[in-house]
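Final paragraph of the annual report: two paired records, presented back to back.
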Amino acid sequence: MKYVVAVRALCEFTAKQGDLDLHFTPSPSAQEGIAGHLAVTGRRAAGYETEISLSGEYDKLHVRGRADGYDSARNRLEEIKTFRGDLNLMPDNHRHLHWAQVKIYGHLLCLARGLSEITLALVYYDVGKGSGKETVLTRAFSADALKQYFDQQCECFLAWAEQELAHRAARDLALSDLSFPHASFRAGQRPFAAAVYQSAAKGRCLLAQAPTGIGKTVGALFPLLKACPSQRVDKIFYLAAKTPGRKLALDALSRIRDSAPGLPLRVLELVARDKACEHPDKACHGQSCPLAQGFYDRLPQARSAAVAAGTMDKSALREIALAHNICPYYLSQDLVRWSDAIVGDYNYYFDLNAMLHGLSVANQWRVGVLVDEAHNMIERTRKMYSAQLDQRDLITLRRSAPAALKRPLQHLHRQWNALHQEQEADYQTHDAIAEPFIAALQYAIADITDHMSEYPAAVDAELQRFYFDALHFSRMAESFDRHSLFDIVKNKGHGNGRGGVTLCIRNIVPAPFLAPRFAAAHSTVLFSATLSPWHFYADTLGLPADTGWIDVPSPFAAEQLSVQLISRISTRYRHRDDSLAPIADLIATQYRQQAGNYLAFFSSYDYLQKAAALFRARYPDIPILEQARQMDESERERYLASFTQTSEGVGFAVLGGSFAEGIDLPGQRLIGAFIATLGLPQINAINEQIMQRMDAAFGAGYEYTYLYPGLQKVVQAAGRVIRTQEDRGVVYLIDDRFAQADVRRLLPEWWKLG
């Protein structure tokens, strides 16, 4: 069995050395890189070859890649690197890596064409505005010298490759024999697991609606792991919407490993950089951060320790990284290549610049993707492919901007004003984004880029923040189409000339952006307790036409959950103040009848706060908890920890928030819920525009904009009450609209409304 490795991956493993060096200098975008390569190759003489596929063998290694360009007349092989700024500021270890790559390509070309010698060239092309300058560094090598270098690099990698081959063989053998980690399947868990396995076997997507309490996490991971050997799946990506979802996945993988002692499964948790950083006050380079200094020199030992441990969650990685005095976050980035199951947030695969997607494509991995709580995908991915610019930020920036940037920022400001000079309404959508504004924005981006490249040590946080926002807006503008809205909102203070306006490219249908991500995976399973109707998710997310669908029956009986419809109370916005007292009395009456732990859900913080204040005043003897705005992770954990098997009280929470989904409070930890809202998004100018767009695209504007998203939140919140087949509880649906036929048909079939 051969271990296949790309030239770049081989060199990054063997030739990276010295410090982690992430001085902020704007690197060329992918589009600029492609344009730079075309500019260089376009200048070459006739007969110049580009994108030359090359490969070679060394023992158990199969090394492959594409060389950028070869001039047979001059016998010169070129590796083209785009950059901006002062080439002299490029760290030596970057140059060392570039030479390693071109030398490997040089050997492979000599081998393929029987050359006895060759000239190798590093071509650095400056993509800075108006530059187009090439700097060419050349060195002549004999074929024998290049073969010796190739053999040295391969020998350095061979021991690791042999270890990886042995690990893969042992992993696949163990997974083939893997048994379910529990004594038996829960009700509904077996058909769910079978559907996941079949989706992997057929290499297609699956939408799975599976009720709370059947063990979806294990039910998804186990069959996909079983499918890995036969389907040659390299990696599993388990993607969660929130931290609790990641923890459930890590716990499930831990149970699977514990059930099969010796199972060689490497599990990696990815967390955001700000949560993993040990020195948030320091920059990511060796002159600032001690964990960046000598990072690549100590990485091999840390990498070996991590894969030997197998479990690489946040705490384990931190311990290993600090033991080797390197950065935990960037250690985790490296370990993606050597892990079997990777647990992280949606953005790692679906975002515009998603790392897991990029690595999968670059390394041609066969991946199985599991998307937990997939009802969140629409809203989350809309945000990924939306962009916003606030003119107030530009106004502030112009005051402090360096002299070299005054002119382009002033020009941008004028074009910004021209965008909305005839707009009288506070909010208005526009069919297109004016070309003069886009040109001014790109001009400003180019000038800011050149400035930051020239002065990398003097980066201003305000300038950098605006730069990133402008870059993202520019990229979204390039792909602007019917899947998104472009709107202009007048800010407060606009009338006196100081408020400016906010520009927003608001993605409505993420399907065009997500479809290539689904296509890149061997199989993708999206699962949740609330994915009805399935076509709503298939349409908006861009799932393939052959996507499977399974609706797993609930294992729970109607007798377990008393669902009470309270139609005498309206929670419509105009009736909310009148609803507070009846809702407070209802909660108190139920609590008096059966003391215990309850959650009461409201449509907004304002509604929640008014209800909690009135309840506290009327019933001071009943303990309450109140969800606050922007609670951090530790505050959320303390809130949930208050719900014990012996505690009693009422927790006030926001529907659709942290406590309305993705939490597990079995038994007496939660015996009831009050849902004082239909969950419908607020009626406003933006949502009305979204409704029009949804109606034009799918013929179901109201349903796709308001009804389906609202009822999904209601069912999720109610699903917190019954978690096991032993649980008993009550749910109150408070609003007369719950009695409407189009609403009732979206509620779980096993519910019986009282």
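The closing record of the year follows.
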Amino acid sequence: MKSRLTKVLCLMLVLVMVFAMAVACGKKDDSKPNNGNNSGNNSGNNGGNGGTTNPGETTEAKWYDSVDFGQKMLTIQLSNDAADPELPADVAYIQGPDKISETTGVDKVKNLVKERNRNVESKKNGINVKIDYKYTLVEGYSDRWSHVSSVIAQAERNYSNSNKADLYIDLMYDMLGAACEKAVFDNILKYTKTDSGVAGWVGGYFDIESYNGYNTALMSDMTLTEDRQVLIASDYFLDVLRAMLVLPFNLSMYTEYATDDADAAKLYQMVLDGKWTWDQLLSYNGVASSAGSATIDDSRILMAIANGGMMATGFLYSTDYTIYKQDGDKYTLKTTCSELQQLFSKAGTLSGVRGIVMLPGESAAVGESNRKFTSGESLFATVNMLGILETADFQGMTQGSLSILPVPKLNENRDYSTLTNSRARVGALSYHSTNQAAMSAYIQLSTEESGTVKDTYFDDAILGKYLAGSGASNILNMIYNRLGNAKNAIIENLILNRDWTIGKDNCWAQLIKQGNMTQYQNISSMMAACVGAKQEVLNKVVEAWKTADVDVTE
């Protein structure tokens, strides 16, 4: 099987290289929804992110016209049927508002999700299947974080007609942990649609490389070896987009209290020109001061940083550098990383700047940071998810006062990189299911039909209701276009999940969360001191990944 898969991968690689060469001939324009990592559709709306025509928008014959699964029942397992207070109603973006009558449902995006699902399931517009949703009920996000992988692994080990799933949708980083367990998730490369007659294709409808509704950059990061891909990220999994890390800021305060140079259009253009850095952010410290005053007004601060998970991971991992070297299937952690040293030094600088308030802790600190921001006390909020804009505090802000920027870069020579928070949910096929072909067809068609859902979420739920400024849509597109490059965070989380003792004391985000950045000014010596223990754990993780696609009963 591996040799056949290698042939498939080689063909796919050639196609990707041809596509990349074609894209390289064009000029990149972040104001247009077009990227090279296959994230999104080209539906023509501001929030779009595609480069090819959505198959659902043409009048040509469609691949699913001749597909009929005879109302086969497919089961989708989700992690929680309760709204997360920090990212509300996540399940509704997959299932739709199943508990809200259509006459009272007022959320356009969620109702579009429900309509999409009905169309895909139907015989007239889709593939003629039925979907049964089941839920893993775990109390609270913190408990879910540590138990999801074991819950899924146990379910697969005890797979039966009474306890089965065809597709799991759950937290991205914990799904990676589960993917290192034996015979949990199936390799989707076996169900990837390629040219007919190519050895290795055993049935399925995934068309990942030619259809651009998939986030192939993120999917590439969510694997450790080229011959095995289990996690799926596409427009169908809207939580991936809702969990993108952004930096909210108060546009009204910026334009009211700054100098004549504080024009929103100039600010947005500066960001698009690649000049948005942490030093640039600090240069706006005076924006928080009273009009005409040369000193900072302590009642109006630059930023209240919640020194917890999202700020720590966003600060460290929204970057284009790596803390590892890769040679095929071998990952070697670096003993030195000049960029990491500079970032820790910058973190120490931030913690000592007047106008920046460091709030220790996790959820309470995030809540207090959001309160200071939404009440007009701070120019910037802490690094947070795009979906936080859906919560009541942000919705209550004065119209025209809210906008977003990407997480700042270390310096102008780097590239922007958008990290997905650990609350993002991705999908994976059950190893023991016998419905992989039907499930792959369902995901493919759902992805094709999700362009309108995604664009409506961007245009109506985010841009239309909350974000001020004509340039905000270009900024949102740029953030979306940079989604990916998550391997740093993935490797650190895999080490953390595999060995908490080693991970909690030596993973870089955990160090940032401890709050006193001044003690971490010599990162090179720290890396050298802990790299051996971390490397040993990482080697075990990679080996577990490579042998996981094996049924223990075989």
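The chain has a mean pLDDT of 77. This concludes the annual technical report; the extension proposal builds directly on these records.
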